[in-house]
Amino acid sequence: MTTKLFTTPKPNPQATIRLFCFPYAGGAPSIFIPWLDKLPAHIEIVLVQLPGRGARLMEPPHDKMHLIIEELMQHSDFITQKPCVFFGHSLGSRVAYELAYTLQKANKTLPVKMIASASRAPHLASQKQPLYHLPKQEFIKKLRELNGTPQEILANAELMDLFLPLLRADFEIADCYRAEPCPLPLPIDVFFGHDDVDISQAQRDAWQSLSSFPVQQHAFNGDHFFINTLSDQVIAKVSDILASL
Q1: Which pLDDT score, from 0 to 100, does residue 152 have?
Q2: What are residue 85's phi and psi, to 5 degrees?
Q3: 3-state per-residue secondary structure call for 30-86
Q4: Active-site residue set
Q5: What residues pair up with 187 in beta bridges, in sequence order?
Q6: Would you say 242 and 40 are in contact if contact means Cβ atoms under 8 Å apart?
Q7: Which domains does the chain have, with CATH numbers?
Q8: What is the rounded distance in angstroms from the CA atom of residue 110 to the CA atom of residue 115?
């Protein structure tokens, strides 16, 4: 399936499970392209492409979580058409949880598993200074410190002017969104980086409050963006989890 919102770069009609991938704040679905040929054969990857990035670059980005969920829920029949797994990194994890929570409220089928990567539990408030409303140069300085925005974008004034609305919108959601602390009948695995100074153990452990199943945690020897620096290890762990379903 290829729509504005969902892209399936490698269709697999025989797949028994769909893996929906939600990128981090400011991230494009292209970060998951290296996964396409490395997951079990029964998996079909669906990339979630929100406005303001990728092929939707010129669309105004959503700056509230409920706007993202409203757009996703317009396609709830597709999301629940086959057994599926949600994978989200950082803000993407919280989008994935809120979507699962909304599916539950709508009496829709839940994913068979969710993988929350590099994220505090979404019912907890951020402990960091809000970034989205900082003056332009201070905001860019913070982005550089976070080390998740490509240097070629940070160093290019024209590209930064193009991407700033998306980055501010994503960080507004990251800074302000709080989930309802509702345990779902949904197994959750948590990925984290040993050197991730943004997420504490207590913030990771709090995911247990959101699942009626025991939450499994998996460590990687990286910082907040280990999904990029240790992609092969992340893919291998995701493959192991999916193979067991």
Answers
A1: 75
A2: -125, 140
A3: HHHHHHCCCCCCCEEEEEECCCCCHHHCCCCCCCCHHHHHHHHHCCHHHHCCCCEEE
A4: 90
A5: none
A6: yes
A7: 6-122+181-243 (3.40.50.1820)
A8: 13
What secondary structure, in 3-state letters, does 115-167 show?
Answer: EEECCCCCCCCCCCCCCCCCCHHHHHHHHHHHCCCCHHHHCCHHHHHHHHHHH
The per-residue b/e assignment along 125-153, b for 16 or more CB within 10 angstroms, e otherwise, is eeeeeebbebeeeebbeebeebebbeeeb
pLDDT band, residue 106 (cuts 50/70/90) = very high
Residue 173: strand, helix, or coil: helix
Taking each helix axis from N to C terminus, what angle separates 136-146 and 157-176, rounded to the nearest 10 degrees? 80
Which pLDDT score is estimated for 209? 97
pLDDT in tens, 133-172: 888 888 888 888 777 677 777 778 888 888 889 999 999 9
Condensed to tens digits (0 to 9), the pLDDT of residues 109-122 reads 999 999 999 999 99
Taking only the tens place, the pLDDT of each residue in 197-207 is: 889 999 999 99
Average pLDDT over residues 65-81: 97
DSSP assignment of 174-242: HHH-------BS--EEEEEETT-TTS-HHHHHGGGGGBSSPPEEEEESS-TTHHHHTHHHHHHHHHHHH
